[in-house]
Specification:
This protein is mostly helical and 60 residues long. The chain has 3 helices and no strands. It has one domain.
Length: 60
Amino acid sequence: MIPGFVFNLSTVLGSRDQRTASLLAALWERKASSTAAKTVFAALVDLCSVRPITGLILDS
């Protein structure tokens, strides 16, 4: 698991979405191996959330 990823993502999505954050982190870890894929993934998370993802860790 990417250190801090689930914590930061659940902060973005809200604490009630902890399960969603865990599932997205698992998807991130398995599917987003390239920097470009991580950038696209982060943009999708940004579009789906109401809060900015400035604290999100993008480096593996």
